[in-house]
Amino acid sequence: MFISFEGIDGSGKSTQARRLAAALATEGQEILLTREPGGSRGAEEIRRLVLEGEPDRWSPETELLLFTAARRDHLERTIRPALAAGQWVVCDRFADSTRVYQGVSRGDLRAMVDRLHDLMIGVEPDLTFIIDIDAETGLSRARARPGAEQRFEDFGLPLQARMREGFLALAREFPGRCRVIDGSGDEDAVAARVRAALGAAE
Ligand SMILES: Nc1ncnc2c1ncn2[C@@H]1O[C@H](COP(=O)(O)OP(=O)(O)O)[C@@H](O)[C@H]1O
Ligand SMILES: [Mg+2]
């Protein structure tokens, strides 16, 4: 199975992806935990180009090409080989993040995102957990976290709220694979919701 975690910054994706991967591994499942942008050597190099530096470092179109190039490398070098070897892949962000970020926050590039995706990626996860949290909680959790990857973190509350709506709209667009998970409450509570949704989907 190929599982992705999506949602706004600070929603708890990385925390829950890690926890699900650890729980499944304990049960004996071979798991590959990976992330985007990144997840392969080349894609991790591209990650630095897109997440560090000035907010206006790239045009929206160039940025979209960089994200797509990173995803293609990640798919070729990491995701496909793992799935072929019988592992489950748990991925912290995948194409839905591009649909929302480049579609909502970088001018309306959604049509271009979809065309590039069809051309260069062409696969979707089997299951996508959209961790849903109110914009304010997400922003305060994200701002409390240290790190140099700040290019996308100063969007502010209105944009964070629009991106939350963008993820919820995607869940309606792709009801077959997307499950909206309430991201409020402590980590254990959210992890239990993820496990219940996985159990129901299997
Ligand atoms: N349920 C939770 N309650 C409180 N804090 C949380 C919860 N889940 C994650 N956090 C903390 O909030 C911050 C953002 O979580 P993270 O998993 O990195 O979010 P994301 O990957 O979606 O940006 C981290 O410091 C994390 O430890
Ligand atoms: Mg994260």
UniProtKB/TrEMBL annotation:
GO biological process terms on file: dTDP biosynthetic process; dTTP biosynthetic process; dUDP biosynthetic process
PROSITE patterns: THYMIDYLATE_KINASE
GO molecular function: ATP binding; dTMP kinase activity
Enzyme Commission number(s): 2.7.4.9
SUPFAM superfamilies: P-loop containing nucleoside triphosphate hydrolases
Pfam families from the UniProt entry: Thymidylate_kin
Binding site for ATP: G7, I8, D9, G10, S11, G12, K13, S14
One Gene Ontology cellular component annotation held by this UniProt entry: cytosol
Top EC class for this record: transferase
Span of the signal peptide: none
Superkingdom classification of source: Bacteria
Cited InterPro entries: P-loop_NTPase (IPR027417), Thymidylate_kin-like_dom (IPR039430), Thymidylate_kin_CS (IPR018095), Thymidylate_kinase (IPR018094)
Record key words, sorted: ATP-binding, Kinase, Nucleotide biosynthesis, Nucleotide-binding, Transferase
Catalytic activity: dTMP + ATP = dTDP + ADP
Function: Phosphorylation of dTMP to form dTDP in both de novo and salvage pathways of dTTP synthesis.
Family label: Belongs to the thymidylate kinase family.
PANTHER family in the cross-refs: THYMIDYLATE KINASE, UMP-CMP KINASE 2, MITOCHONDRIAL
HAMAP family assigned: Thymidylate_kinase (MF_00165)
Protein name: Thymidylate kinase
Gene from which the chain derives: tmk
